[in-house]
Amino acid sequence: TEELLRKSDKLAVAGQLAAGLAHEIRNPLTSLRGFLQLLQHAMKDKQHYFDIMLSELDRINFIVSEFLVIAKPEAIQYKQGNLTAILQSVTALLETQAALGGAVLTLDFEEDIPDIVCSEMHLKQLFINLVKNALEAIFKDGRVHITVSMAGPNLIRVRTEDNGCGIPEERVKQLGEPFYTTKEKGTGLGLMMCFKIVEAHRGHLHIESTVGQGTTIDVLLPVME
Ligand code: ADP
Ligand code: MG
């Protein structure tokens, strides 16, 4: 009976996921079809339609790729990598976006952080997600600060701090559940993916938050043996 229950639980979760995913995919698809029809009538001077179509396509891609990571963590390919280098490239990537929103994104790192065994692509995606969430949580005088440091002889800590809206205590334990979002255009899949990626790297993700003050997220990853 216990095993049956577990199976039906899994099926229920899978069903919920599929339903949510279908819902998320259908909206941008509807919009794409509409604009394509408009284009059939007027091809000229309609760059704007192309822009919307491209961003909707990106969104579909994004949602589906988030799902693929979650569905197949065993397919991740691991290599030697370095967290300082990864965070430098993530910061460079998002600095401009932060500045456009009137926020400041900064990075600090200890010298000679040892290498880890990782999938650089997935770790980048993980930290991009955390920084994007931070940027979306801040408003006036927004600051997002990343620190890479040693948390023990064999443990590296990447801390992402923001001075954004914060998360109510009772909500913090809900984070990482699929489709939990407070954003109109959110997917509620980002943090779930973050937890999965960290878990696949044998690390830990820890969230601390105070409403009105900000959020601190620690990612702890073991150094390479
Ligand atoms: P999404 O960003 O699409 O909403 P996520 O899984 O990335 O989905 O995040 C889920 C929710 O967690 C967000 O909608 C937001 O309410 C909350 N959250 C995540 N990171 C932060 C943060 N740094 N500050 C405040 N709230 C956050
Ligand atoms: Mg997010």
UniProtKB/TrEMBL annotation:
Signal peptide residues on this chain, from the entry's feature table: none
Occurrences of domain Histidine kinase (ranges): 20-225
Protein name: histidine kinase
Record organism: Paenibacillus whitsoniae
